[in-house]
Specification:
oxidoreductase, 44% helix, 2,5-dichloro-2,5-cyclohexadiene-1,4-diol dehydrogenase, SDR_fam, NAD(P)-bd_dom_sf, Rossmann fold, binds nicotinamide-adenine-dinucleotide, 7 strands, alpha/beta, 253 residues
């Protein structure tokens, strides 16, 4: 049983229909927050909402393309109508695409940047009135170890986008420093989610993923969720502009 450090808080989690985002929504809800889960995938989002509600959580699901500014305006407005404020924003939605730069169409690069960077920028921008209503808040942006190092072949677009999230986080932390809003980034290593599963099932790629992790295992989505819940709570009250690595020791060597 975890302590209810987020009692009374309202959290908006993007990309919450599956994987790490789903685990973040569960971890935050377990600690007492009310949840707005958003995602572009409505079918999976509705299924995830049912499991949140079955745990007795006050929660809603909204369709949301994070790369769309009109969608952000609508999602923040609807969250305000439902709950009157937002204390916690988790910019989790992201595209994981691997392609060697020689072969990468410029449209693919733009797509990754639009979701992974533009989406985070729009979230940090449009959440302000809702966090003002809460008297401040905590924003957590999902980066990656590949936002700190270029980890493997084919990560030009993904690493670029996650590196941008890392510095965008620090810039926004400074912009919001006088508004009682803390902004931190989280940098997972290899985490078992539906998108990563094919790489783990492939005998050519699985050994590389495990091999570069000193703990010699893949992380679980809940292990990222617990860290995000800590950053969401007042227990991390002196942290802003920080980059928090959750990687089984990957970057320690
Ligand atoms: N799984 C890992 O090993 C790993 C490692 C480091 C960082 N990350 C990051 O963690 C986050 C979640 O990763 P995951 O493995 O759970 O991915 P995932 O693909 O399993 O889930 C991502 C979710 O984001 C949603 N999404 C995609 N595009 C969207 C859009 N335009 N608007 C709204 N929602 C959209 C998808 O529908 C999906 O539900 C991503 O930002 C990813 O880059 C993952």
């Amino acid at each position: 049983m975890v302590s209810k450090v987020l009692d009374g808080k309202v959290a908006l989690v993007t990309g919450a229909a599956q994987g790490i985002g789903e685990a973040i929504a569960m971890a935050i809800a377990d600690r007492g927050a009310r949840i707005v889960a958003s995602d572009i995938n409505v079918e999976r989002g509705e299924a995830m909402l049912s499991s949140l509600r079955s745990r007795g959580v006050e929660a809603h699901f909204l369709r949301h393309d994070v790369s769309s500014e009109p969608d952000w305006i609508a999602v923040v407005a609807e969250t305000m109508r439902l709950f009157g404020k937002v204390d916690v924003l988790v910019n989790n939605a992201g595209l994981i695409e691997v392609c060697h730069i020689d072969d990468m169409p410029v449209e693919q690069f733009d797509r990754v940047m639009n979701v992974n960077v533009r989406g985070v920028f729009l979230g940090c921008k449009h959440i302000w009135p809702a966090m003002k209503a809460a008297g401040g808040g905590s924003i957590i942006n999902m980066s990656s170890v590949t936002g700190i190092i270029a980890s493997s072949d084919g990560s030009a677009a993904y690493s670029t986008s996650k590196g941008a999230v890392r510095l965008l986080t620090k810039a926004v932390a400074r912009d919001y420093i006088d508004r009682n809003i803390r902004v931190n980034s989280v940098h997972p290593g290899g985490i078992r989610t539906p998108t990563v599963e094919p790489f783990l099932a492939d005998p050519d790629t699985a050994p590389a993923v495990i091999g570069r992790t000193p703990m010699k295992r893949i992380g679980l989505p809940g292990e990222v969720g617990a860290v995000v819940a800590f950053l969401a709570s007042d227990e991390s009250s002196y942290m802003t502009g920080s980059e928090v690595v959750v990687d089984g020791g990957w970057l320690a060597v």
